[in-house]
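Example record used in the benchmark description.
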Amino acid sequence: MKRVSWRLSCLLVAIVSGSGCAFYTYHYRDANYDERVEKGTVLQSLQLDPLLEDKILALDPEQITEKDIKEVLSQGPAPRITNLHGGAPFVFQAMESFSKFLIAMGYPEGKIRNPRDGTYSYSPFKSSAEIAGIIAWYYEKEGMPVMLVGHSAGGMKTVRVLYELAGAFADKVAVWNPLTEEAEGRYAIIDPLTGVERPVVGLRVGYATAVGVGGLASLVPGQWSMLSRFRTIPDTVEHFTGFYIVLDFIAGDFLGLVGPPNKYRANGTAKARNVKLPPSYSHVFVPVTGHLAEHKPVRDWINRYVPTEEPELTVSFETSSINILWAADVWHSVKKQWCLEAQRLIRAKRNMKREL
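Model output (structure tokens):
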């Protein structure tokens, strides 16, 4: 118990001292945001060296190395990552730590931070319809399906957003502009790859993941409409990973000791997998991962990680490796989806050129 308490104390210090205040000076805005999307707009704006395109197409999505990130993937397009933090006060700082981990591992900062105010994540109390509308707006403007990462109440909201996109709560969903935080008065977008108008309902995200969902946390008012749904994943995501922590007193069904009640399953074409995290992991602090990218041996282990349902850390490091199993699994999926979406975008661009 002493060791666990010491770890939690370190995490608290890391959050308080490493996250800074909630005021941001970050300013990022893609030049294409102000352009009206028409057939070919996004693909024509993708100006890449043909040699770089060939290198991206030659990558194996399941085996992306740090060198691949630095020399190949980071030179091309990347999907937007939308993080949803938990509902407790100040827990947004844990997701901020995770965002900084992604950036330090090589993910483009501009595809993580909110272009309006520079924040790293959305509140789980934000409307799921609004988040779904924002996802559609980004896809139309950037040409790549968004990735979703949710923690605790944010994990529940992540699954709810997937159902929102599936039309479970309304026949149509409005497009939301994340720069103005207002609905655009339309319920369809121009698909950036086909040039054909399509509704927001039915739109797919590439990768979504949730950690710390279930148990007592699912009984909070506002979550009740998801009680019969949150372990079942709809077709509006390609790859989904659900994490549960053994002895999670907050969100573990049967404290996470009984596997089946904590596991997610697809009700259609989505590919859903489950990962069990050890009892040493904290429900509140599992996204605190910024420290992991600071040391090369830890980074190397994370980049070599191979996904499994019950990951174990069988090596020791001279520095903290707290939350490494969660971080490594999510990073593997992020790299994989990044590669897949970049390859799809490049193929779509080349197909368009052949048709002209």
